[in-house]
Amino acid sequence: MTGRPRQPKKSEKIEVRLSHEEKSALQSLARRQGRTISTIVRDLLADHLKGVLQAEQQPSIRERTAMILKPVATHPRKLAAALAASLGLGVLVLPTAVADPVKVELQGDFQRTGDAYKEQHRFNSTMAVEPGVPGTFVTATPESDVPGYRIELTVTPDEGDRLLIDVSIYRGLEGDDLIAHPVLTAESGKEARIHVGDDAESYEIALKVGDS
Fold first, then answer.
1. Of 12, 168, 173, 204, which is most buried with the most CB atoms under 10 A?
2. Whole-model pTM?
3. Which of 97, 127, 161 is the last residue of a domain?
4. Do 64 and 137 belong to one domain?
5. pLDDT tens digits, residue range 69-122?
């Protein structure tokens, strides 16, 4: 009698050997950012793997984008979009060196109300994200039964000065408990607002995206 085949684990654990100085620096960084060490290491590894995969794919598109890169340096996005359309490339994702990071200003007001408690957590932060590449912001709430919140957002240029902003709001620092996933459009440099929830749980975020 054969047993059932083992299902693959949802996650795996690896050991990483660090010097005492490296471990202390990592612990200090985690405390300053209000994140867990596991989250920091996992994000760094994911970014590294993503960069390696993008670098491996780059030679396959180098020939098709060669004529785009030079004019883009002087006339960024509009000219790039026109050239991409003429070459039949569809939506062009510019290399990191060409697509400048954009500044995202975040203001949040999260409230939770129960029979015997009322919590309010506010935050104000500025981050720089590359167009089309997800950026992550985490905020800890040590006095709450919720360890914190995680916000992931992707900014993609749309028509004219308009931007497409894809936002995921998670309960917890690991990004496992999704609260809401709004997608909105906004003009560069102008504030856009997100409000989700009800009387028991309310999540409000003000966003302003502009060139850094």
1. 173
2. 0.53
3. 97
4. no
5. 555 444 455 555 555 555 555 444 444 444 678 899 999 999 998 888 889 999
